[in-house]
Amino acid sequence: MSHTQGELLYEGKAKRIFNVSGESQLIWQEFKDSFTAFNGEKKAEMKGKGQINRAIASLIFQKLKDQKIPSHWVADSGDIHMITQKLEMIDLEVVVRNVLAGSTAKKLGMAEGTALEKPLVEFYYKKDELGDPFISDDQALLLKTVRHDSDLQKLKDRALQVNAVMLKMFDEAGIRLIDFKLEFGYDSAGEILLGDEISPDSCRLWDKQTNEKMDKDRFRRDLGDVLENYQEVLNRLTK
Q1: ∠ CA 65-71-72 to the nearest 5 degrees?
Q2: How far is it, in rounded angstroms, from Cα 206 to Cα 40?
Q3: What is the dihedral of CA 197, 231, 40, 212, to 10 degrees?
Q4: In this structure, are residues 86 and 188 in contact, taking their beta carbons and an 8 Å threshold?
Q5: Tens digits of per-residue pLDDT, 88-145?
Q6: How many other β-carbons are positioned within 10 Å of the β-carbon of residue 119?
Q7: Do the bridges between strand 175-182 and strand 81-85 make them parallel or antiparallel, or are there none, so unpaired?
Q8: In whole angstroms, how far apart are CA 40 and each of 1, 43, 124?
Q9: What is the mean pLDDT of residues 205-215?
Q10: What does the DSSP assignment read for 51-77?
């Protein structure tokens, strides 16, 4: 079934969100060529970035679907668009860590690259004006981020299911999945679905042989060859 792009609803840092004409439960997402870091303080445009991220996100969503893990993905359209289910988004970023890196390694006083005995799942409150702070489970409930207390455990369980699939997927592509961010929402029936995107913007990905960074840290840390590494991730996933 073909879909038609409707009116612009919202423009974020990495995507534009539109209605789908005649479909109240679908939205049309356009992946932008924009890079942002440090809560929007650092910005850049790189032509082709949106197309690469849409392709990677779509691949991952379809792989998760094959493993019975539900997401908002419905269909792709063209090179930079994705049709998804409309969700009431949960104000939590769910972060899964397999290896310590970045500010978390620094905060814990451990070396970047320290592998964890088991994945660590953390919640961050989705508020740009607060800098998306880390919060405890009880704080998440205090803030009424979820409809039911039991939904927090559902988010953790689902995040670990996603992690298991992605670990295997990236390992087979010669890439270490260091950590990543997920976002979830409620569909019209009240079910929790994986939303947003999964891409090198939202994951830390290191080459399995060299530990060379292949993700947004290349932009954050001015390492260069940002798009080239994003493209290499896509190339390896589609071999």
Answers
A1: 125
A2: 24
A3: 110
A4: yes
A5: 999 999 999 999 998 899 999 999 999 999 999 999 999 989 999 999 999 999 999 9
A6: 17
A7: unpaired
A8: 37, 6, 17
A9: 97
A10: HHHHHHHHHHHHHHHHTT--BSEEEEE
C-beta separation of 227 from 46 below 8 A: yes
At 197, is the secondary structure helix, strand, or coil? coil
- Residue 201 to residue 216: CA distance in whole angstroms: 5
- Average pLDDT of the segment spanning 74-91: 97
**Distance between CA 78 and CA 162 in Å, rounded?**
26
47 neighbors 96 (Cβ within 8 angstroms): no
Q: Are strands 23-31 and 15-20 parallel, antiparallel or unpaired?
A: antiparallel
pTM: 0.95
Phi, psi of 129 (to 5 degrees): -65, -20
On the 0-12 / 13-18 / 19+ scale of CB atoms within 10 A, 107 is exposed
The 8-class DSSP code of residue 71 comes to B
Using DSSP, state whether 103 is helix, strand or coil: helix
- Strands 115-125, 92-99: pairing kind: antiparallel
Distance CA 201, CA 55 (A): 13
- In the chain, the N- to C-terminal Cα span, in Å, equals 28
Helix H or strand E encompassing 158: helix 151-172
* Residue 3 DSSP label: -
Query: Residue 98: what are its φ and ψ, rounded to 5°?
Result: -100, -25
Extract the tokens encoding 49.
Answer: 């970035």
Q: How far is CA 184 from the centre of its chain?
A: 10
- Find where tokens 């607060």 sit: 130
Instruction: State both tokens at 130.
Output: 């607060």
